[in-house]
Specification:
This protein has 219 residues and is α+β, with helices and mostly antiparallel strands. 44% of the residues lie in helices and 17% in strands. The protein is built from 9 helices and 8 strands. It has a 6-stranded antiparallel sheet with strand order 3-8-4-5-6-7. Strand 5 and strand 6 form a beta hairpin. Helix 1 packs across helix 4, helix 2 packs across helix 3 and helix 4 crosses helix 6. The mean pLDDT is 92. The chain binds zinc ion (2 copies).
């Protein structure tokens, strides 16, 4: 099956990479979207012509205000479809991201309106991500921190997880960690891993995974 990467995918990936505080260059987009560098170059040319992105002399890609608007609409629709899959169809939370990536292009404005009527304006997706909590700075302002930075011995709740990595989501599901799960750090180990209690189970987690999970202290 060939997956066509649309203009919206490029815009959304640019916005999301910016939010992960990654410098966005064409290699970032090639990696995120799993497309070739020439394909990215051609897409960027079109997006510049449409006034969606600016490419600076050092190769950094930035969304224009119009590009940002399109990105926010696309992300809102993505979260809405994830909620539909989860809340209406009961699809497991770790499977819905890829499904939503495919479906979001097929949703008409009329159907989107119906979905908003049915599910409400709430923009928090089943991975805990929302437009209001996009950048690390915005998350920290709301009291969230990365699991890798959490204090040992205190109870935390999983607030959100990085949803573009299916292997990570499958792993978290297997360990019983999903948005809303309570956990506490028991120890930071010499090998860089963290020992946690997740509900009542002991889990050992490496830093790469702990840096993809946002948690909030339970008071
Ligand atoms: Zn998603
Ligand atoms: Zn999501």
């Amino acid at each position: 099956m060939t997956i066509t990467v649309s203009k919206e995918d490029y815009i959304k990936a640019t916005a999301e990479a910016e939010n992960e505080s990654e410098p966005v260059i064409s290699a970032t987009l090639a990696h995120w979207l799993a497309v070739s560098r020439p394909a990215v170059a051609a897409a960027l040319k079109r997006l510049q012509k449409d006034g969606m992105v600016r490419v600076k002399s050092d190769g950094r890609i930035q969304l224009t205000s119009r590009g940002r608007e399109v990105a926010e609409q696309t992300i809102f629709r993505h979260h809405l479809i994830e909620r539909m899959l989860s809340e209406i169809f009961g699809m497991p939370w770790y499977e819905i991201h890829e499904e939503a990536e495919r479906l979001e292009h097929a949703v008409s404005p009329a159907f989107e309106k119906k979905l908003v009527e049915k599910l409400g304006e709430n923009d928090i997706c089943p991975h805990g991500n929302s437009l209001a909590l996009r950048s690390p700075a915005e998350r920290r302002k709301k009291g969230l921190c990365l699991l890798s930075e959490a204090e040992a011995g205190f109870p935390y709740r999983v607030a959100s997880v990085y949803e573009r990595d299916r292997k990570l989501l499958d792993f978290l599901e297997q360990e019983g960690m999903r948005p809303g799960t309570r956990l506490a750090i028991q120890a930071r180990n010499y090998d860089g891993t963290i020992s946690l209690t997740v509900e009542n189970k002991l889990v050992r987690l490496g830093t790469p995974a702990a840096e993809k999970i946002w948690v909030v202290k339970v008071r």
